[in-house]
Amino acid sequence: MKIVIADDHAIVRSGFSMILNFQDDMEVIGLAADGIEAYQMVAKHQPDVLLLDLSMPPGESGLIATGKIKEDFPETKILILTMHDDEEYLFHVLKNGASGYMLKNAPDEELLSAIRTIYNGGTYIHPKMATSLVREFFNKHSNSSQNDPFELLSKREIEVLPLIAKGYGNKEIAQKLYISVKTVEAHKAKIMEKLQLKSRPELVEYALKKKLLNF
Predict the structure, then answer these.
(1) Residue whose C-alpha is closest to residue 80's, from 90, 67, 68
(2) DSSP conformation letters of 81-94
(3) Is 45:4 a contact under the CB 8 Å cutoff?
């Protein structure tokens, strides 16, 4: 299977490459330092699997890259690698199309198993996070009237929200996401409406609460 690795730390990319290239059924064909490079590598090589770090400052985050890559290259399976064992991150990346979520401090054997699982069409969730996923499923189905309004946001709105909270202007957001300024303004209005927010400070407070500024 052909694999691309995206992580902002060169030593991590190198270490994962050594582990994977040692396997008879795996080959690392591309490396990337942020979400933008990850997209470019996927577009160029059409890999079977993308190992994608969730947080890659100052470049584009793994969350945003996941949505873009799954939309344009649905055949590429995405395995999120992260240090965050927070359920909020798990729900975001799965909603954006990732096939797996595992912690970077997991054993090498778990990484290899996760890659083979998603390559064969399965989903891999780090055991520590599986309980959170099951709990969320039952909470939603037992009391749907109390669903988090965040679930109403589209993939693009989830991309726009943290950029607004970080202080980027409409033009800057438009350039980062390759959309028009009018489209940004429309997304911003929809976000405020869906989340029932009245001002930008409220939006920033909401983003902090949801830990979206880490993306």
Answers:
(1) 90
(2) EES---HHHHHHHH
(3) yes
Tell whether pTM > 0.85: no
Helix (H) / strand (E) containing 49: strand 49-53
User: How many alpha carbons fall within 13 Å on the CB side of residue 119?
Assistant: 17
pLDDT tens-place string over residues 103-124:
888 899 999 999 999 999 998 9
Q: How many CA atoms lie within 13 A of 54 on its CB side?
A: 27
* 98 vs 111: CA distance, rounded Å: 15
The span from the CA of 211 to the CA of 190, in Å, is 20
* Count of C-beta atoms within a 10 Å radius of residue 54: 25
The token pair that represents 134 in the structure block: 């099951």
Contacting residues for 6 by C-beta, under 8 A, at least 6 apart = 31, 32, 33, 34, 35, 37, 38, 41, 50, 51, 52, 53, 56, 62, 65
List CB contacts of 112: < 8 A, sequence separation 6 or more: 19, 20, 23, 26
Residue 83 structure tokens: 């240090």
How far apart CA 98 and CA 53 sit, in angstroms, is 12
Rounded Cα distance between 73 and 30, Å, is 16
Mind listing the pLDDT tens digit for each residue in 140-191?
544 544 567 887 888 888 889 988 888 888 999 998 888 999 999 999 999 9
Q: Are 42 and 4 within 8 A, CB to CB?
A: yes
